[in-house]
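Review form for a predicted model. The reviewer records the input and the model, then writes brief findings.
Reviewer: anonymous (R2)
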Amino acid sequence: MSLYHGRHYLAIPGPSVMPDRVLQAMHQAAPNIYEGALHDMVNGMIPDLKRVAKSSGEVAIYICNGHGTWEASLTNTLSRGDKVLALATGRFVLFWAKMAESLGVEVDLIDFGKSSPVDLDMVAARLKADSEHRYKAIMVTQTDTASTARNDIEALGECIRSTGHPALYMVDSMASLGCEPFEMDRWGVDLMVAGSQKGLMTPPGLGFMFFNQRVIEAREKANMVTPYWDFLPRINPQVFYEYFFGTAPTHHLFGLREALTILLEEEGLEEAWARHAKLSRAVWAAFDAWGQNSSIRLNIKNPKFRSHAVTAISMDAPHATELRRWTEKKAGVTLGIGLGMAERTDPAYHGFFRVAHMGHVNAHMTLGMLAVIDAGLKALNIPHGDGALSAASQVVSEA
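Model under review:
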């Protein structure tokens, strides 16, 4: 017998769970794209997007996924032959760096592995050694969606400034924007990229690039600017279509407007950060309990460096894949695969999975997901410790 039927719960790190109101806002006839209400709505969204990033600078909206925003960040700021410093704490900066290389940019990569944050001392040493200031940009993720390592973007900004290095500070906040604190201006971030499908609770398809005056100045020297990715028309459109270099993504915009209203006006951004922090601690408490006298482990040992949006877990293979399949087929909960921790052809691949707790999630959704995992562990006779649900409930009950 399956208990699958009912409302399915997608606990993967993007696309995240979307509020019914976002979906309902999208369910309407196509609007007039030449004048009227759509123009007013988009003009009003620009300052709200900046509020989410705590930015007084500019934001360009692209019809793309996160990889598209990576390309925009590179082509608008760099020239072929430039050199960048890439700080990898999992999988995604590696992809960003590879894209840079494919465009003719020289990449100096520091790979901190799959279970560690950026080491600030190593970064400072590398920047001080670059006495000629060849690095034109420093690339890092706030949260790596695969490893779920969370970097201290504020501390890294202070580290960069302490060396006096002039490189642009570029941050990928794809998995974290709206889920955990991000203060672009105060932390000294020059450029940040994000997308619609995670903390912003809107379907995949919109990419955002936030940037300051230093980035605008860098664009004047960049020789890789292309018509589509050029941010200048998007931040100062003479006609409405230049926001998007063509037809507006109308229904994504309807959904995003509703999501921003929920996030900023109804819950409040700081309250959303606090909610994600508490729910993440509940998830960690459950897995700490399950991990007693078993192979179940959180990928990031130090809670300070764990994402508040998604958590990566390991266990003896093939139990992770077995558990994912059981929770989806038997109970209607889809967990995330263990992305980038092992090759799909490696038997070890089946010992990793991820649990998302990002976006439109609350206590009963998170506790319900954990209860399903607990049931799956028991049904499959996977060794695990006791008291996980009690531990998670205790975190939720704390003031």
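Findings: The CA atoms of residues 66 and 335 lie 21 Å apart.
Further findings: The chain has a mean pLDDT of 97.
Recommendation: see findings above.
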